[in-house]
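User: I'm preparing a small set of examples for a lab meeting where we compare how different chains pack in three dimensions. I only have the primary sequence for this one, and I'd like the structure in token form so I can line it up with the others. Please keep the answer compact; I'll paste it straight into my notes.
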Amino acid sequence: MIFGYTVDGGRLRAAEAPEANLAALAWIDLENPTREEEKAIEAALGLEVPTPAEMHEIEVSSRIYLEDGAIFMTANLPSRFDTEEPRLAPVTFILKSGRLLTLRYHQPRTFRTFVNRAERVDVGCTGGLTVMLGLLEVVIDRVADIIEAIGREIETLSRTIFRSQPRRPGDGPDYTDVLRGLGRQGDLLAGAIDSLVTLERIIAFLSVGTVANADKDGRARLKSAARDARFLSDHATSLLQKLNFLLDATLGMISIEQNNIIKIFSVAAVVFLPPTLIASIYGMNFEVMPELHWVGGYPFAIGLMIASAVVSYWLFKSRGWL
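Assistant: Understood. Below is the structure token output for the 322-residue chain.
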């Protein structure tokens, strides 16, 4: 599908039939394009549209390069990160002759957010470069929101792990759910960091290129975007370290809980060991055993077993082993 936009007074204007007049558009947005749509774009702009396989390549030379007088830049952008099926997929930005072409095979919320805002207010859209700068700023804001949400969730998981004080083994939090939560936040955080890395590459490339050098305001916006991306990357890295710490702490808590359960069984076995010994002695079938013919022998043996169990329990309790 082809979406086209022109610029008017710093705002975007959606074209009703963009495929009819591609040369007049400042921004062409390709979403899941068909082969016929790709051919139309290639013929109108004089460039070759990257394939999905080429967009997924991770080498810097395959993600940022010059070809046919156009600048190709690919970044990984998040989508549906607030759902159970988050997705991180590449989006290619192509600048040629003052025109921006974006190629994507998923639906990042940032595109719709930017279009809605740019259609209402003046966001400084004068051409393809300024449209791209606006998109980058919205993407960075979106990644910041994702990282903030991850930070809040990590704080909740931290309180669950450390501030719960179960009275008995098994009364603590469900560590299976905690581990699932840590794993999910780790995946989201890794995706956010991956997105920031690709964005920083694009910003650095534009900052030293002739495109940015021709626009003072563009240089200032790029500098601000680079600063925000670097700060978010550092913050995300610190959250990742905290996440790893919480993972180690959770595994430690699980080990402690398991040890407490095994401790109870061990103490119970030791407490009942003396009664078992007494019962074993009086269970032997020897004819010469005075207590066998004693009227009070049975109550004596039972009392001896109870007393030995009580003494063993008191000994463990007084030593602080329970």
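A couple of notes for your slides: The chain has a mean pLDDT of 85. DSSP finds ten helices and seven strands in the chain.

User: Perfect, thanks.
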